[in-house]
Each structure stands twice: as C-alpha cells, then as structure tokens.
Specification:
fatty acid metabolism, Lyase 2-enoyl-coa Hydratase, Chain  A, domain 2, acetylation, isomerase, Enoyl-CoA_hydra/iso, six-stranded mixed β-sheet
Length: 310
C-alpha cells in the first residue's frame, strides 16, 4: 500500500478518467497470495474496503482448480464481514486474466466420472454448477464489487466481471468471450449476464459467436465498463477513490440498493416495486436515514457520519 500525490485535475481528460482528489492512495500489487489462499491476495487498502487480487501473475492469472473454490470461500467470508462495505477486484501482473487454465482443468472437465452416460452427465452437470457458483457468489455478496481490468480479460474473466457491480478498465484493456474457440459454449455466466449488462443482443451475439476482441473504447461505448483510465496506476487509484465514496454511505442503504437492483434486473417493474416496498418496510426503521438527512441539511459530506456496522 502506498500513497501518491497527484496534481488536481479535471475528472475527465480526453475521454480518460483520472483521480480528482489532491491525494489518492493507490493499491500496489501484493508480493504473494494471502493464506489460506493460493490464487488470491487479500488486503485492506482503506477503512471498510477489501481488495481481492487475482494472484497467479506467472500464469497470467489463469483460473486453475484452486481458484474456483477459493473465490467462493473468499466472497462468502466477505459477505459476512461487518468491517467490509465494498470490494475492489483486480489482477496482479501484466494482465487481468487469461481465463481458464486449460492444462490444469482438463482432467476435471474432459474426464468426468460415472458408470454410464446418465451418471457421467449427472456428475458433469454438478461440476458445471459448482463452477458457476464461483462467480454467482460475487453477485450474491451484498457488498458492492468494483472490478478493475487492465490488459487482457479473456473467457472466464468476462464471466467474472459481468457478475460485478461496477466495471473499470485501462485504455489498453481488451475483452474476449473465447469459449467458441475452444469448442464449447460459455457456461459459467457470460451468456446469461452479458446481455443484461450491455443491452444489445446483436453485440452480444457478435462477441460470443466470433470470439473477437472488444477494446476499451468499444467496451465504454457499449456500457460494459463505466470508466476508462490511462494506465493501471490511475485505474487503481480511481477504483479506491470510488470505493471510499461507496464505503462512506450507510451500509443499509448501499447493500439494500445492490440487492434491489439485482432483483429488479430479473423481475418485472411491478414485481420490483412490490419487493422494494416490502424491503423498506423494515429497512426505513434505521437511524441512518435521520443521520444522512441531518448531514445533507448541514451540507456535510457522508464521510462525516459514523454509521454503525451491518
């Protein structure tokens, strides 16, 4: 963890986002994975912020067998951690991730066990469902997840980022739904979440059927990412700045917002409104509303409010 001093600048410069504060703290890459994990490095760069870093830089952060279970354990722990209010996900090394580690995963996927076709199919379906949970657990986590992508984001990387709440990238980032090139349909989230992220069925079909690369400018214009930064250092500083802003708000309000946004995405407007009304029947009974209203009337920043842990 380090602090860097940057000159005050406009929030946007030539289409790229830059940190807008005089002082921003940039998240440096960890030297090694954090025990008990072998593929992830966990740190806490700011109060109430957890940084989860994909950490197999020598393998381009390829997703091996350990990764698929460690992500589940990690995000289940984060979901229950009252000291965490927001998560930042990034990748160590030269790229975000090269996707699935084919050499390490081949025996698991290509040689399923079973005495007959039905049992082989049953066991393979169970494995696929287990792998799907690796990224669904990010979506189920009530804490907002900001993902910061630099360089390549291939295959399983797209599955991962589409399960996150906010996506940022560097100008040199590119994204690729790679699965058709290795003879299969993407099966752990991209085909289900990407259409809802970018909203264009034609573009989704284009990307998923051709396996072409999507570069940062197109990712921004299509809505896959919301901000593009000049380089990784600027992006990580921007991600932490954003995480600080989210963490400063009421955890009741923030986590309730995430949960209801996801519910609304998967239901009709009428169903979403009904769920929201039921949700706020109990969630409005919090001191956070009065604290926030008082701060607003006094023109104070939410960062001045001491919200209780959730």
């Amino acid at each position: 963890m380090l602090s860097v001093i940057v000159r005050s600048t406009l929030t946007k410069y030539r289409g790229l986002w830059v940190p807008s504060q005089f002082v921003v703290r940039a998240m440096s890459s960890s030297a090694a994975p954090t025990s008990p994990y072998t593929t992830l490095a966990i740190s806490h760069p700011a109060e109430s912020v957890t940084h989860v870093e994909l950490h197999r830089p020598e393998k381009r952060n390829a997703m091996n067998k350990a990764f698929w279970s460690e992500m589940v354990d990690c995000f289940n722990e984060i979901a229950g951690d009252p000291d965490c209010r927001v998560v930042v996900v990034s990748g160590a090394g030269k790229i975000f991730t090269a996707g699935i580690d084919l050499m390490d995963m081949a025996s698991d996927v290509l040689q399923p066990q079973g005495d007959d076709t039905a049992r082989v199919s049953w066991n393979l379906r169970q494995k696929i469902a287990k792998y799907q949970e690796t990224f669904s657990v990010i979506e189920k986590c009530p804490k907002p997840v900001v993902v910061a992508v630099h360089g390549a984001c291939v295959g399983g990387g797209v599955d991962l980022i589409t399960a996150c709440d906010i996506r940022l990238c560097t100008q040199d980032a590119w994204f690729q739904v790679k699965e058709v090139d290795i003879g299969l349909a993407a099966d752990v989230g991209t085909l289900q979440r990407l259409p809802k992220v970018i909203g264009s069925s034609s573009l989704v079909n284009d990307l998923a059927l051709t396996a072409r690369k999507m570069y940062a400018d197109e990712a921004k214009s299509s809505g896959l990412v919301s901000r593009v930064f000049a380089d990784k250092e600027a992006m990580m500083a921007g991600a932490l700045e954003m995480a600080d802003e989210i963490a400063a708000r009421s955890p009741i309000a923030v986590q309730g917002t995430k949960i209801n946004l996801i519910y609304a995405r998967d239901h009709s407007v009428a169903e979403g409104l009904d769920y929201m009304a039921t949700w706020n029947m109990s969630m409005l009974q919090t001191q956070d509303v009065m604290k926030s209203a008082q701060a607003a009337m006094e023109k104070k920043s939410p960062k001045t409010i001491a919200f209780s842990k959730l």
